[in-house]
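Run log, item B.
One chain of 261 residues. Sequence copied directly from the ordering sheet:
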Amino acid sequence: MAIKETVTTLLRDGFILVFNQDKLDLVKTAQALVKAGVHNIEVTCRVKKPMEKLARLRREMPDFVAGVASLVDAPGMLAVYNRTHPDDPLPTLDEAVKAGAQFLVSAGNFTDAGYKKFAGRIPMIPGCASVEEIISQFSKGANLCKVFPAKELGGPAYINAIDAPIHKMISLVPMGGTNAANILEYIDAGVLVLGGSFSMIEKATMKKIIEEQDYDLLARELTVVKRSIDSSRTKKYPGLDFATASFEQISKATGRHFNIG
């Protein structure tokens, strides 16, 4: 899938599910997302054997967009971590792409070497915690910038505060502490795509989903999240139908740029 198509999928979905739950099946979770109207997921490197899980998903659902998250683009740290975790090492960017990753999400910034190899080829979403990092990473080729940890940085108020100084040009993806209660606030602050884990779902319901492996219930809960995002974006951009809009139409209507074309 071309980089523009992948980014368009993320923009149309408005939501990236952070798959960080070893007690759920990745493929069945992806199928639940499709039922909810979401066509992407990010597999974090915090689950066991993430590259094996990703490879299986890509084989069984080749048209579904799958990314890899919690990447650490730092050879020194990877070397230390992998020496102490030889049975389940952290992948490099190359290894993630070879396993089938269609977009890359880092815990922190990507290196210049990472951008040199992958910018323009595959969507790159670096973790950022300051205006300086956001501007620097976007200037190097980032397509969207993850704001992490969003809750601890100030949540929607933080996004709103930094968006004007960066001229409302860069699309920010809050991750960490996003939930059903603050979706509208984030959209109002200019967010087009939210990142969220299973904490988007009420704890008791999530416990039932895991214990009973109830993927139909998961699909219904994810549908609630998707509808909330859709309705919030419709209020923010009343003339824009994200479900059918082209990449160019979304960029023009929102004023956001994505380092593509």
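Observations after the first pass:
- The chain has a mean pLDDT of 97.
- The longest helix spans residues 215-236.
Flagged for discussion on Thursday.
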